[in-house]
């Protein structure tokens, strides 16, 4: 077994720059694989969570919950063979978690070889404990620890070559299947599963989770026992207790038991206080009586009041509790009122801390409080602040959290919210800036002081776990969540000022971006860096400097992702060195390169448009699609498979196999949970993404299914086939709804309008048809293409349809009238695929000319040509945010492209790379320029204003020339072509293809009827302008032709070459007339005198020569 080794032990090797990713072969033991599986799952430690809760619940009195163990329903669940699920429900503070802890401890004491206990305690305020994903991961971890062999369910899903799971283990549905597999494989006679406080789980899928428990988790009530606790929960009321295998214990219906238990708890708490304050028998009796009267059978109220009494003198104890209001809401209100009425610094800091706790995405470690609140007191002082808010928050070990979810609920509305709002303005923006100030002050190179390597490649000292670094730990919250807090206040003046070029955000990114990446990598939270940058791209839309930096930073992170993950300190060396010259991140951090690195290689100026090139299919890629979240890409291929890829990293996540012939089409459902595929095996297959399971095969077409698409509302699937029909399927029942017939040829493409009212179809009968989705009636037939229609797409506003055809054109149609609106005809071969950008401003197309092209939808001007595929481009799709494209090709690859859409609507004044050639128009009014950026630009010679940009070449420009009448421009390029442009409109007139290598020179004849070109293929070619025909090929040079020119009378051509010679040719015959070989180096330029009697030449030998 092989894997890429995570050599964090070597991450300080600044002595060597990693040029390419290093794959080392390592043999792993099964135990090591199991450890990798569990580490990758990142499960919360349920035992630690339970023990922390237990600490907070005082000394657990089993007498308080003894009644539960005698409850008939509980005993039937615990010992019987018919009850598989028990639901304990009750209001806030009734002791549900205390009951759960007691039950777990009781069952653990009884645990033996024939029984097993797994449990999880949900906590709303902790993002690591408030999702279904975390619940199931916690249960899986415990099952693996408690029985050898169960880990095989994880091990067989582990890809040892890529060091990751083959399935998406962030999906609770995938994890559920793993859990069920483990429960099936468990050899114990009985397994108890306890999930506490399910209501504090934030997932919207709680109802689906409960459905799955009922439908798939209760089939063996004698073996598998589920116990859930929650506050009253509507979804639970609806889904649970629907069968004889389910039971309930309602704390509200057991108030007599609860009341007696609370009395016992009161006596216990007063006895504890008595040992501290020496109350005496009479005062103890009075205190117990008042507490019992006001407790309202709520443990939490008693606990909070008695906590308050710890610091009260015995003489004031009775009056203090007499002043305490009954019930939790009143108690919270009293605590808030006391804080509001104080003017001390401590009181203000307490309110700030409460505000931050409400805003925080998880409970805070005591060492993190300063970074988030700006309160710079010591940890000891933070403890004191928490004590002053003891009725609302507390500290469990070093973790600060709300005493109960009900306290958080109180502060989120009514009087509680009014208290927080009445104090200083300290919101999300202030939290974000506090985080950035802290990070700016503390982040530094090699923050954990990782050891270096000696000359033999061994560590100079023992490697320590970075997570044991206290400073790193104190940065975790700030480093992970600063951008989310910034977004929370993005419209405020505070945040807008922070986003300016000299604002706090800009200064942080410029000074500490690399150190921040190192920090997240060491924390094993590198994926959060991508999420932070995505958040910042939204926040900084109107902040040019930050927006540009974030765009470049995203390139930097994505291109060097695996290097940063495995060798964090290489951020400062190889990642920086091998970034483009114009990278902002590189420019801002050159001073951080290792001192021993005296010279660095020159890189390309800009990031490549290709972000990832994904190879994995063994045959042509015919279909691609983005998931609605933009996080995944699906591809379908002639290798009969569908593959799902991580769009961030380009890694393959899973392969769906089931078709028996070529896969032509794939589409994601709008909720991102399913994929549908169409194949040459005449079937449509419906897949669940999380598990990769085939849910259903839809049959009905009698020939290849060439296209499938979900309706935007997710209720229907439309499919098109070579049998000439479109079929509509109901996604809920997955049954055929209707068949649309009308095309006389195969259907190649179908698309839904955004409002789901219409379907467009493109066919081999050269037409587009528009159908009514509800009735199935044909509304319009659009006919103007002269070859097959391969692709159709609706504009987002529903006003236009774009179609791509085998006639090499894209046509845009007005839906209301059915009229042809615009034609795009710049592709040189069949157009296979078209798509509108999500905002409707751009169209992308893919063609048999191997290119992907991006067009302005309004003007139809070409914005960008993406070159990289080596064969036909069959499919393209925009990402949901419009910033990326994915394409699939006959070269078996999928490519992810950066479209830089946000900059495309702006006129780019000036070339983006160096200018290689100039030509002055005959009337001297205009200048044409050609550049390494692949474009030709036309400028006003007097004002210097840009008039037009001619885009279409696929590589650098080497030469441009005006026709004698100034109406045309010829351009020569490294793409081996010459292109003729209309200088007034900018339209491409012709592409002259015939050279087999770079075209270095081009010139019009004096009468404008002919063009001559010179190339790296050592030839000169003579063309007719009107027809574009190649008339002659002149051979004789033994090296590349660098320059060509017509004589003034148009009868001769002079050419200069890297073979150091000038040759003069007779145009009429094509014969070589003379060779001049007086130069000792390449001839770069030649020119005739106006009378045609002399020739001047310039050469690499540093001379200019004039001869007759």
UniProtKB/TrEMBL annotation:
WD repeats lie at residues 614-655, 656-697, 698-739, 740-781, 782-823, 824-865, 866-898, 908-949, 950-991, 992-1033, 1034-1075, 1076-1108. This is NACHT domain-containing protein. Keywords: Repeat, WD repeat. Coiled coil: none annotated. It comes from Penicillium brasilianum. InterPro entries: NACHT_NTPase, NPHP3-like_N, P-loop_NTPase, WD40/YVTN_repeat-like_dom_sf, WD40_PAC1, WD40_repeat_CS, WD40_repeat_dom_sf, WD40_rpt. Residues 84-232 form the NACHT domain. Pfam families: NPHP3_N, WD40.
